[in-house]
Amino acid sequence: MRLFQMRRISFGFILLSEQPRGAKCCLHIARMTDCPISVYFIIDTSESIALQTVPIQSLVEQIKQFIPQFIEKLENEVYQNQVSITWMFGGLHYSDVVEIYSPLTRSKDTYLAKLAAIQYLGRGTFTDCAISNMTQQFQSQAARDVKFAVVITDGHVTGSPCGGMKMQAERARDMGIKLFVVAPSEDVYEHGLREIASPPHDLYRSNYSITQKNALTIDENTIERIIKGDPGRPGRSGPPGPPGEKGSPVG
């Protein structure tokens, strides 16, 4: 068996060329490459999120609408008759405690039913413990999959009993987990969000938001940019070109 060398653009970057050390998640078997991809959602339902809107559960409800729209766009498929792409979904929500609402599953219906049942937790915000729990969930899986986490938080914390966000995010990245960070609203601590996001931040943070500016409408542009890749900002203008040739006399 060997690693299949074709590149597939999804989730904003090349999946099959950036594997964790020693991983062989996309294997060429019987003329078809199996490429399982896992997406784990980490949802902050602490007091700093819940109290941003009235009624207090409404922003959490927006998050619960954002995720189904997100995973609706992720379908199992066979790419160019060569690569079989399959998806798994899991998630937890947290405050100063962590609740795993869904282990990784291949069933969207199972995952979405468990997502719909969560309620905000309130109290403090221990984001480092949430990331640590996510990493443990991936470690418990035997599958050699491509791993993503989508962390939905405002960047504020009230404590760091699990070593801090930066340390836990680095630990997750060392395992080959790519972390996207999505803000639930405009009220964020950006430095905290960037401590979590994988580099480059122009790809894994890029001002992603659950809702559109000054509204509680789902920001579908964020979903599209994460899945298809952010086109980025225009580059700088190039240097002036050389002068043109001297013209011929007229007449």
Automatic annotation (TrEMBL):
InterPro entries: ECM_Assembly_Org (IPR050525), VWF_A (IPR002035), vWFA_dom_sf (IPR036465). Residues 226-251 are annotated as: Disordered. It comes from the Eukaryota. Keywords: Cell adhesion, Extracellular matrix, Repeat, Secreted. SMART domains: VWA (SM00327). Its main location: secreted. It is found in: Secreted, Extracellular space, Extracellular matrix. Residues 38-226 form the VWFA domain. One of its GO terms (biological process) is cell adhesion. It holds the Pfam family VWA. GO terms for cellular component: extracellular space. Trimers composed of three different chains: alpha 1(VI), alpha 2(VI), and alpha 3(VI). PANTHER family: COLLAGEN ALPHA, COLLAGEN ALPHA-2(VI) CHAIN. This is VWFA domain-containing protein. It comes from Anas platyrhynchos platyrhynchos (Northern mallard).
